[in-house]
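Minutes, project check-in
Item: structure for the 572-residue chain
Input as provided by the requester:
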Amino acid sequence: MIRSILTTCFLAGIALVCFLSGAGELRKSKNQNKLPFPSLVKDINPDLDCPVVEKKSFTIVMIAHNASNWCEQALRSVFEQDYERYRVVFVDDASVDGTLEKAQQFIVNNKQDYRVIAIRNDSPLGPIGSLYRAAEHCQDSEILIPLDASDWFVHDGLLSRLNKIFQNPDVWVAFGQSIDYPSYETLNSPFFDWRSIERAGFGCLADFSNPSIAFYASIFKSIYLSDLFVDGRFSQLSQFYVIKLLEQSGGRIRSLSEPFKFANFSFHQRPMQVLSNERMILQSRQPYRPLARLPTASGREKRGVDLVLFSFDRPLQLFSALESVQQYLTGYQTITVLYRVSDNRFDAAYNMVKTAFPLVRYLKQSENPRKDFKPLLLRTILNSPSEYIVFGVDDMIIKDFVDLNFCQQMMEKTGAYGFFLRFGRHIQQSYMSQKPQAVPSSVPLNNGVFAWDFRKGEYDWGFSNNMDMTLYRKSDIKTWFTELNYKNPNSLEFKWAQHPPENTIGLYFEYSKMVNLPLNIVNQSDCPHMNFMTAEELLVKFNQGFKIDINPLFQVMNPSPHYDYIPEFIPR
């Protein structure tokens, strides 16, 4: 009897422990699924109809890939709208069936060329990549309507209807139904389970595709490029940008039970395996916080860029580097030279550099440079209000015109980790590795800028942290520059390279803007260099009144960031 009672108590105890443990796991599971911030904005009413007080500006982004049989019908449905305040950005996504030529002829014949911008992708980017390129031509306040060139609007009053919908300031995104062609089956707009969204966010919506959607350009422009990329290219799933629109809107969404377009689904089906793989990636992406207000161009003002150059016993090279900066580089706030010398002869030569470039700030390291390099560098970085920084070394030459303000703005727009002035489409050799390197798969943006994924690059193209004229956000590098132990630029670069960024997207121009001339070496290392002249010999040249002639390097097509080049010395 007693044994039976003890057994019963023992089993009950186990059951209680299991129950409590299970309850704890349940609570833990629920907490894991809950967002750390509210996904919905309070006190909004997107379903309210408001009086029409203005005519909104619309841009129809028509995306065409081998749609020559359908593009005229798509364009006709746009040109027949009873609303005038709209324009079209027609993006031909590397069609090979004459789509662009046929569309352009139709546009001219209908006398609509005044309202159409035509863009051609040299290689296919897909719907999201094409939309991304088109958005660069749009004002923040414009409302974008993506439309595949094989689809068409359902009636001529669609833009007038959407103008009424967007009168409500609580509507940032609007959905409509689609009519499947040729079955004519009605495809509903997305259903929003607000309770689930409030708990887990908009990421739970991953099944809709090819939505009928309209949205403000500014919230699309606020999506980071890395969140639209999968495996080094633009995703093929519209959800990748749609969910980011919804997350930023915080519930400022109007879903209508009326059709926007005929969707020619038989024309643009994509492989199910691709869709399945990308859905898994989509669900792993970090959510965005809701925005308090619509972003505007004024909110993406210039942030300021600092330029920091490192130099050791190289006054002649530093002179040429500063001369090239003065001649070709714009858009920086301050230039600081952090330098050290081995004796008074080099110190005197640096004083001549200071006289030639008086607007530069010079910080000389002490007789114990291994101790003061880090404090001086941190003071330079942290005591400046600029939010961006570029590091360079004294043997570099800027070889083409470049505006750092533009680079910074591209960083703001794309959310990229860095803008790499040393790269271009012609950089196909690794000087340090003495091996060929392929230009990684890259996505063309606008204004001759390309984007790529570091993880897809080899040798130099996979090296994200460097001192060779790359634009970084100070906020992205502050932790490592503060916590790492380093005593000079070489040790800093080596240790910093051990901590690659989570954001793997970099930007570069079609043609590189700088080149390194490895005439000699200042520290013992395994790095190759030309052994052209020693520091002593170059010092003699400098004291004789010579400098490097940088003019022959203008727009030189160097095959690698470091370039074996015998310079000509000319009088200063």
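Outcome recorded: The chain is about 30% helix and 20% strand.
No further action items on this chain.
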